[in-house]
Design brief:
By secondary structure, the chain is α+β, with helices and mostly antiparallel strands. Helix content is 16%, strand content 43%.
C-alpha cells in the first residue's frame, strides 16, 4: 500500500481541533429520531465560488464566511495543511466547515496509521467510508472527542485533485446531527480548471518586513492576523512553500538550529534527512532535504544577527524534487529581501503610582505594551522587543552580556502548570540541552517552577508560573562556562518576584 502524507491528516485534526463522529451511509447516513433537526432539503442554499482556488459548492444561506482564518483553530495551523476558507453558523448548535488544501499523492490511504494517530489524541469511535465524487475516490472519516467536558462531533471528506487533496472538515456541537446536510453540501463541491500562468510576481508580506519574487501561479493562503507564518500554494499542488517567522535564538549556531528543526520534523514522519550548504546573496545558507514517502521537503536556513530564518518547499514526487523545481526554489530564495527591522522599543517605562509594592533603589519599572503586567529590573538593563508569530516577546540586555526574555503569556485553561513544566523539559532535552536542576518559588502569590538548563557555554534559568488561565514564562541567559554566578541568580529572582499581574 502506498503512503499518504500522514502528518497532514494529523495536524489538521490535532491542531485544528476538527473532531469527527461515527456514521454510515449515502456519502454517509446516520439514523436519528430527533424532532428538532432541520431536514437538509429545506435549507435555503447559496452558491459559493472561490476565484483563487478554483472550486465551488453550495452552503446554507445562514452560514457566514470567516473574514480571516479564526484564531482557534486555524491560526495555530502548521505543517503542510493550509486553510483556504471557512464557514460557520450558530443556529441551534454550532455548525462549521473549514476547507484545507495539502500536497498529496492521490492513491491509497493508510487507515491503520490514521486510526493509531487519532486514537493517541483521544479521538473515539473512528470510522472510515469511501464514496465516488466526480469520478474521484473520496475518503470519509467520522469520530468524536471530549473537549472541555463536551462531546464534539465532526465529519471530514478528503477529495483528491491532481497532486493536491482538498479537505472539507465539518464539525458541530449538536449531539443529534445526521450529517445529511454535510453530505448535501459536499455533493455540490466541484473543481474548475485553473488557467495556465507564466512569469513571476512580487510578494510583500502584510508587515512589510520582507519581500519575495514568486512564480505568478502561486497564491498566498489567507492567514490569521495573529500569525506571521506565510503559506503559498496552487490548486493543483496544494501547499508549495512556507515562510516561517524569524526565531530569536542568540548564541545558537545555525547548524544547531537546523538540527533542532529537523528533529521536530521527524516526529510527524519526515525522514532520510540529507544536509548541504550554499551561499545565497552573500549569506551562508544551510539546506535540508527529507521526505515522508510521498512528499519531498526542502528547507533553507539562514540568519541575520540573532535571528534564524527558515523557508520550506514541498513537492509531491516520490522520486525526489525535480531539478527545475529546485532551480525555482533557488530563484525564490535569491529574491528574499529584508525590508525593515522591528524597532527595539521594548517595554514602556512605568511612571505611575506604586502598584502594591515600592520601587527599590536602582531599579526601573516597566509595563508591557498590552498592560498585562509590570516588572522591575536594574536601571542599566536595556529593553528591546521581538514581535513574531507568538506575539510580543520582551527582552532586556544587561551590561555583562546576559539576556532576560519575557515571552507572551499563553492562554491555556485547564492545563496544570506541572504538565506545562514537564512538556517544556522534554522540549529542552529534544533540543540538546542538559537539565541541571529544578526548584520552586512564589511569584505574585502564585507557585512558580524553575528549570535550569545548559548547552555548551550557554546557561539558562527558566521561570514559569500561572495566573488564572494564563501561563507566564521568562528566561535568563548568560554565557559562562562555569555556570550562573550566585549574584546573577539572586538578581533574577528579585526581578521575577517584582512581577505584578494587572489583567
Amino acid at each position: 500500500m502506498k503512503k499518504i502524507l500522514m502528518h497532514t491528516v494529523l495536524m489538521l485534526f490535532m491542531v485544528a481541533c476538527v473532531f469527527f463522529s461515527c456514521s454510515n451511509g449515502r456519502l454517509s447516513n446516520r439514523a436519528s429520531t430527533a424532532e428538532n433537526i432541520t431536514p437538509p432539503e429545506i435549507y435555503d442554499m447559496k452558491h459559493y465560488k472561490s476565484d483563487d482556488w478554483y472550486f465551488s459548492l453550495d452552503i446554507p444561506n445562514s452560514w457566514k464566511t470567516f473574514p480571516y482564518p479564526p484564531a482557534n483553530p486555524a491560526s495555530a495551523l502548521v505543517g503542510v495543511n493550509s486553510l483556504v476558507t471557512g464557514f460557520k453558523s450558530n443556529d441551534d448548535g454550532l455548525n462549521a466547515l473549514l476547507i484545507f488544501i495539502s500536497p498529496h499523492d492521490p492513491e491509497l490511504f493508510q487507515r491503520d496509521k490514521i486510526q493509531k494517530q487519532l486514537a493517541s489524541s483521544g479521538c473515539k469511535k473512528l470510522a472510515f467510508f469511501e464514496t465516488i465524487l466526480e469520478s474521484k475516490k473520496v475518503l470519509i472519516l467520522d469520530f468524536e472527542m471530549e473537549i472541555e467536558g463536551a462531546t464534539s462531533h465532526a465529519h471530514v471528506y478528503m477529495i483528491p485533485y491532481k497532486s493536491s487533496i482538498y479537505i472539507l472538515a465539518f464539525y458541530t456541537t449538536r449531539q443529534d446531527t445526521t450529517f445529511e446536510l454535510y453530505d448535501r453540501i459536499t455533493e455540490t463541491f466541484e473543481f474548475h480548471e485553473p488557467p495556465v500562468v507564466h512569469g513571476t510576481k512580487k510578494y510583500v508580506n502584510p508587515d512589510e518586513d520582507f519581500s519575495l519574487e514568486i512564480p505568478a501561479r502561486w497564491k498566498a493562503f489567507p492567514h490569521s492576523k495573529n500569525s506571521k507564518i506565510i503559506c503559498f500554494g496552487t490548486p493543483e499542488n496544494g501547499t508549495t512553500a512556507i515562510v516561517y517567522s524569524p526565531s530569536h535564538t542568540p548564541g545558537e549556531m545555525l547548524e544547531d538550529y537546523r538540527t533542532r528543526v529537523q528533529k521536530m520534523s521527524s516526529k510527524p514522519g519526515w525522514k532520510e534527512f540529507t544536509n548541504s550548504e550554499t551561499v545565497i546573496k552573500g549569506r551562508k545558507t544551510l539546506l535540508g532535504d527529507s521526505n515522508n514517502g510521498s512528499v519531498n521537503l526542502r528547507y533553507y536556513f539562514f540568519e541575520d544577527g540573532d535571528y534564524k530564518y527558515s523557508v520550506a518547499f514541498y513537492a509531491s514526487n516520490k522520486d525526489g524534487i525535480a531539478s527545475d523545481r529546485l532551480e525555482e526554489y533557488d530563484r525564490v530564495m535569491r529574491s528574499y529581501n529584508f525590508r525593515k527591522k522591528t524597532e527595539a522599543v521594548g517595554m514602556k517605562e512605568y511612571t505611575g503610582s506604586d502598584i502594591r509594592r515600592p520601587l527599590a533603589s536602582g531599579m526601573k519599572r516597566y509595563i508591557t505594551h498590552d498592560g498585562d503586567f509590570t516588572v522591575d529590573v536594574p536601571g542599566n538593563w536595556q529593553p528591546s522587543i521581538v514581535d513574531d508569530m507568538r506575539g510580543k516577546t520582551y527582552l532586556f540586555d544587561t551590561p555583562e552580556k546576559s539576556l532576560a526574555v519575557f515571552h507572551p503569556r499563553v492562554y491555556n485553561p485547564g492545563l496544570a502548570l506541572e504538565n506545562w513544566r514537564d512538556n517544556q523539559e522534554r522540549r529542552y532535552i529534544d533540543s540538546g540541552f542538559s537539565i541541571l536542576g529544578k526548584s520552586e518559588i512564589v511569584i505574585d502569590g502564585n507557585k512558580a517552577f524553575i528549570i535550569d538548563i545548559k548547552k555548551g557555554a550557554s546557561n539558562t534559568r527558566n521561570f514559569i508560573f500561572k495566573e488564572g488561565d494564563y501561563i507566564y514564562s521568562a528566561l535568563f541567559y548568560i554565557n559562562n562556562t562555569e555556570g550562573m554566578p550566585d549574584d546573577n541568580l539572586e538578581e533574577y529572582e528579585r526581578v521575577m518576584k517584582s512581577i505584578n499581574i494587572l489583567k
